[in-house]
Amino acid sequence: MAPIKVKQYINGEFLPSSDNKTFDLFSPYSGDFSEATSDDVDKAVVAAQAALAAWKALSPQQRGKPLAKLAQMITDADAELAQLDALSLGRPVSTYFDGYYAATHFRYFSEAAYPVGTSSLNTPGFMNISIRQPYGVCAAIIPWNAPLVFLSKKLAPALAAGNTMVLKTSEKAPLSSDRVAAMLGEAGLPPGVVSIVHGHGPVVGHAISSHMQIRALSFTGSVRTGRAIQRAAAASNFKHLTFELGGKSPALVFADADLDRAARETQHSIFFHSGQTCMANSRIYVQKGAAAAFVDKFNALAAARKLGDPSRLETTSGPQADKAQYETVMRYVEEGKKTGQMVETGAPLPAENGDLFVQPVVFLQQPEDSRIMKEEVFGPVVCINTFETEEEALKIANDTKYGLYAAVYTKDLDRAMRVAKGLESGMVGVNCTSPTGAWDMPFGGYKQSGVGRESFLLSMDDWLEQKAVFIRVGELDEAGTGNSTLG
Ligand code: NAD
Q1: Quick check: CB of 38 below 6 Å from ligand 1?
Q2: Quick one: average pLDDT of 113-139?
């Protein structure tokens, strides 16, 4: 395979970075990955400013044309995009939905117009309205685990709202976004409307989050980076921020649940991307009495995972994304062996290139206050504990700083509704876990799992300013003078 080259996409052109620096990507293939500088971010912002007036002056229908074309181009390139993510981050093509997800987002927003504003007659002498307008130059910083999911969640609503965008990819996974960058011009997006820059967080990401001309920024990634971004935004221009952060998602399985379904779905959630998803249910609580049967079913499914080359369709679990990720996961596993009971699932490691694979790990009876129960591991590691009562289940499920996703499995509808209401979580699955197909529901977390919500029309709220316009109507007052009650 020829060495891969990735360059900055700024103002409609592929360019080396201002100092020609490159970075290494963990991948079995060699490449040449350009590392952006803060000058490159400035260049992208200048281009975004220059493109803004013409872009925001278009009607939603006119802006929608290139977005719809981009959706089609992504659909046509789906298999290739899947291979690029398999190559750079080990994402199995068998579980790849990102191309479909991205195309759906761009297609949806190609037909979206501004969400409605408000109007009011509550002030005598006035007929007031609020209008919504794009912020202007905006930005997005995305993680590596599902690059096109996050690229589309940010770009599609922001562009439809009339903003111009600078997007930074993760240094671990620039390939599929670089491929999409190559489609933007042909789709009809004018130069500067979208620039895509690559490189590391402390340099490129910081240049974006502290940039004085970027008015809104949407970030998906870890809590630690979210804090750094919030500090940088506060120290610069208080840009509008939205965050999609980490998780430690619980699944509550009651004794009356369909245990086959609960075991099948929860093991898929934690293992399908080797635990490297924000919504993965890494804590499973099973009601005593059903625990032994559930654990047997769960372990049998974990043992049947096919670990191997992510580019092959028969593979159901790939490697960890890089060495650092692998080492972090193994540190948690070693610690977990000391604090709880580890079940050897025995899913066979691949015969070749097995270095970064972690066999699915199931821990039983971990203390609730152990690190493995409290911290996001981002690996194929699940803890299964038990509970007796509904009250206890809710208490332990909510005893976390996170609140992204939670699931409840039971056939008792009243209980399901009570538990759904009681869970401190931005998303709750009732007899299901981590559904990725529910595009029109608010996506986001409680507590330290995030600030704001994404998905479809709701996403446009975060890319639009609101302006109140007070319109004096000059109605006659009691004295018949036409004065308004204000001013
Ligand atoms: P990360 O926070 O390490 O990196 C995310 C992005 O931030 C990358 O592009 C990185 O280069 C950049 N970055 C790093 N330091 C920065 C800094 N100082 N300033 C600005 N940008 C900086 O996260 P990751 O390892 O790429 O992704 C995994 C994390 O993302 C997990 O915590 C996971 O739960 C979370 N995540 C959340 C969601 C969600 O929707 N809630 C979805 C996917 C992933």
Answers
A1: no
A2: 92
